[in-house]
Amino acid sequence: MKILVTGATGFLGSHIVESLQKSGHEVRALARSTSNLAYLRKVGAEIVFGDVGDYDKLLAAASDVDVVIHAAAIVMPGWGKWEDYEKANVNGTKNALDASTQAGVNRFVYISSFTVIGDACAAGHPVDETEPCTLACVPDTYYDYAKLLAEQMALDYHKQGKVPVSVIRPGMIYGPRDRYIADRFHWLVNLPVSFFPGRGNPRAPLIYVSDVADCAVMAATSDKAAGEIYHAVPNGDIRWRSFVSAMAKAAGKPDRRISIPVWLLYGSGVVMEWWGKLLRMKQPPLFTRAAARFFTEDMSIDGSKAKRELGWEPKVSMEEGCQLYVQWRRGQGNGSGNQQIGSKLELAGEQEKV
Predict the structure, then answer these.
(1) What pTM was computed for the model?
(2) Do 72 and 7 contact (CB within 8 A), yes or no?
(3) Segment 204-241, tens digit of pLDDT
(4) Residue 327 CB contacts under 8 Å (≥ 6 apart), including other chains
(5) What is the SS3 assignment for 186-231?
(6) Architecture of the structural domain at 2-177+205-237+300-317+343-351
(7) SS3 (DSSP) at 20
(8) What are the residue numbers of the active site?
């Protein structure tokens, strides 16, 4: 198949390109002319220039392809203006859907997020794809809400018979080229003593990036997946403390942790947000209140549907995933990960360098 990937120079998008090529598909990548195209050129993907805000360029990119995998999005949890999320994540998705419809593609795969489910993620039991999504549009959830609106729009296009749609809701993605989750924890375990909020050990749907990419590819190429939503989340009971230990082991650091009160964690987020706004930072600070929520809530997501219908299940263990991330990080010439940490922008194929 010939498959167009938006967000192809971003974190997940670049791994989707890699997974597609390993599966023998022909890949077309949408990218800005100002993006870092080294990786796409290295793997031999066809590159077309444009972004999700330019409908004509999107339509040209979607012509003569079988499938569109839409991974482009602004990803800055707990930070930024609603207008930016609406423009890129909602209106950009509409452009991609309209272009795919007009071009007559056979499948549109929308990369959503488990966060669209809202508070039900922390209901105390695994939630599946039938769980109602209840979200309010507030600053801490702008990203989640924009993803939800775009997901609902994509499914409406499917119901109206405009284009067959499949939705992937990844868990918390980490791995090589990650500048958000893995970078923060790699930085943390390189401190003399790392900190952990509270004395609990909440569950987290941490999933290695290539596993999510494989799930997207399976959905793109399966007749069963048309009109369906799939959670791409880990098997078993993944805990934050285990993730910290695995990252420390991979980095060759002792697993020394001290617990700090949860209120202090949230307080740090408030201070960092205040400081970031004072400095008019476009990218989020190292820590925000939205990030604190993920590290303190017990989240459980049921991913059995993808296994049952697509035959997908994660291949990379948490220990192996952390090792692969650390190997990649060291190959960047910065073993400590001590660079600007805190943002990821995957907009029309571009991941902003951090």
Answers:
(1) 0.89
(2) yes
(3) 999 999 999 999 999 999 999 999 999 999 988 888 88
(4) 176
(5) HHHHCCCCEEEECCCCCECCEEEHHHHHHHHHHHHCCHHHCCCEEE
(6) 3-Layer(aba) Sandwich (3.40)
(7) helix
(8) 143
